């Protein structure tokens, strides 16, 4: 076959390919329907990159909650999106015991991974002011009531075991001064 015949054959093959591809894409086009969305709000209380929201949390973190929109408790992801902090008190206030509004600093912690039959996993938590190396508080049981001595941005370092491997995630939360009304 000569050079002219190869060129003509290549052109015909290219034209056939364009027709086939064009035909496939037009007949297989799907329509995407717009769906109404619920506005997602963010709240004060996170710091150093942590964002509190009322969006629906991941399914693995929803145990024990009724599925409501907006989500009934502000929450934040930890690093790598492997932990969630639910702020039942909406914002933390420094000091011990009940706050000025009579509530306590209450945070629910959930980690992604292996869960025993109780639906929760053991989470150890070290708490320190942002940027400091030594923890001020250490809690091996993942306590829900969090009383901190001073205001500022605090880092909660959560560790747990999932799939036989040690996991670590951090969540940064703002703590208002003692006596503040949330």
Written description of the protein model:
The protein has one domain. It contains one helix and ten strands. It has one helix at residues 3-27, and strands at 42-43, 52-53, 75-77, 83-87, 92-93, 107-111, 124-129, 137-139, 152-162, 165-176. The strands form three sheets. It has a five-stranded mixed β-sheet with strand order 5-10-9-7-8, with no helix packed on it. The longest helix has 25 residues, at 3-27. The radius of gyration is 26 Å and the shape is globular. The model is unreliable at 3-36 (pLDDT under 50).
Layout: helices, strands, pairs:
Blueprint: H1 3-27, E1 42-43, E2 52-53, E3 75-77, E4 83-87, E5 92-93, E6 107-111, E7 124-129, E8 137-139, E9 152-162, E10 165-176
Parallel strand pairs: 5-10
Antiparallel strand pairs: 1-2, 3-4, 4-6, 7-8, 7-9, 9-10
């Amino acid at each position: 076959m000569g050079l002219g015949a190869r060129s003509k054959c290549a052109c015909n093959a290219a034209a056939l390919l364009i027709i086939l591809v064009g035909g496939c894409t037009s007949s297989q086009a799907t329509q995407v329907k717009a769906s109404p969305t619920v506005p997602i709000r963010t709240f004060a209380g996170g710091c150093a990159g942590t964002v509190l929201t009322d969006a629906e949390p991941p399914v693995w973190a929803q145990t024990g909650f009724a599925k409501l929109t907006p989500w009934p408790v502000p929450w934040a992801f930890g690093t790598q999106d492997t932990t969630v902090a639910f702020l039942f008190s909406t914002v933390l206030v420094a000091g011990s015991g009940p706050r000025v509004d009579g509530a306590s600093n209450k945070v629910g912690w959930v980690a992604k991974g292996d869960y025993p039959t109780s639906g929760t996993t053991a989470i150890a938590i070290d708490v320190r002011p942002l940027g400091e190396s030594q923890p001020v508080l250490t809690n091996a049981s993942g306590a829900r009531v969090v009383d901190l001595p001073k205001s500022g941005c605090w880092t909660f370092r959560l560790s747990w075991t999932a799939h036989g491997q040690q996991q670590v995630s951090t969540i940064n939360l703002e703590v208002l001064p003692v006596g503040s009304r949330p």
